[in-house]
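Researcher: Go.
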Amino acid sequence: MHSEKKNILYIGGFELPDKNAAAHRVIANGKMLAELNYDVFYLAVQDTKDTTLKVEDTKSTFEGFTYWSLKYPRNFIEWYKYIADADQIIDVIENHLPALPYAIIAYDYPAVALAKLLSYCRKKQILLIGDTTDWYKVYRGNLLFRIIKSFDTNYRMRWLHNHLDGMITVSRYLYDYYKKRAANVLFLPPLVDIAEKKWEDAGNNLSEELRLVYAGQPFSKGSGKKDRIDKVLFALSEAIKKEPINFKLLVIGITQDYYLENYGINTIPDNIKDKVIFLGRLSHKEVLKEIQIADYSIFIRDDYRVTRAGFPTKFVESITCGTPVLTNSSSNIDEYLIEGEFGFLLNTSNQQRLTDSLLNAIAQPKEEIIKMKLACKRSQLFDYHQFLNSMDEFLKKLRDSN
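Model: Structure:
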């Protein structure tokens, strides 16, 4: 660690203070950087209809950090400025920060704007670091949107990121990809600050009814289904035909109408229709409370580049809440999920194996589930303090090479 405090500006499409998963990630990373003696500032986005919004009027603080927000783009001109122009970022750097930043961390930032920012950073001798958390292939939207988005993603992921001073990656897949191409790469899954009040234990489910919870958005930015809730429901339906387990599944984040519209009207089996409760959107605090009192959180993902490149925040939040997870092997979850301690890996190689592996998990005695909940809570697997040394080494390498 070093004594001289330097500024770091974190930029990207996160909505502060805590409106999306990206916001939670960058704040946890900021706490790590602050502990390593950096002053961290943020340039976020704000979803507002106020067309006269000025950056200087958005200045605010959260968790001790100062941040500004750009208006979330709504029309073509605003989108063009956001994805192809670095002027607004440069304005914040030169007119609002107390001094030129030592480094800028760009969270999944649009490629053309990032390329212009890189040129600016080279002139000003500012380090530019990428923080990448996904690799989408866009299936939805009109043809022009898909062409622009495809170009942006491929240019950024395959070329531009290789030329930044360093890369922070959310998954082992992305770490392995950039390790061969970039000079300095850090693997950093979604992290939390375990000391925050929201992680306090809300107690166990003491009823005989098994309580399962799915919480999240099952679709990923126009890239199709990310979480296969339909496969979960079918496996539950088949499992209780073999053993009549009393359970309830709470689905948080979407309504039943939304589910049926996107998964099909026949995807809630008749024998579990009264067991599946759709709660729609809840506040983040309410979601965490539901996870904390559940016996298991559950989700299944298909294996393709989107799921390999990302890392599920819902897994991190569930373990931190003290709730074991039922999921299949996606991303690099199996590096963390110790079977019978932090949950169970579901076998999705065929329907029979999925049903059998799910039945094994939900048939566990209540005492065993409570033991797993305690093991999850005690593990502090994703507390940012566990990754401080890795971040410090990453930053030392940056300093030594520049």
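Model: The two ends are 17 Å apart (CA to CA).
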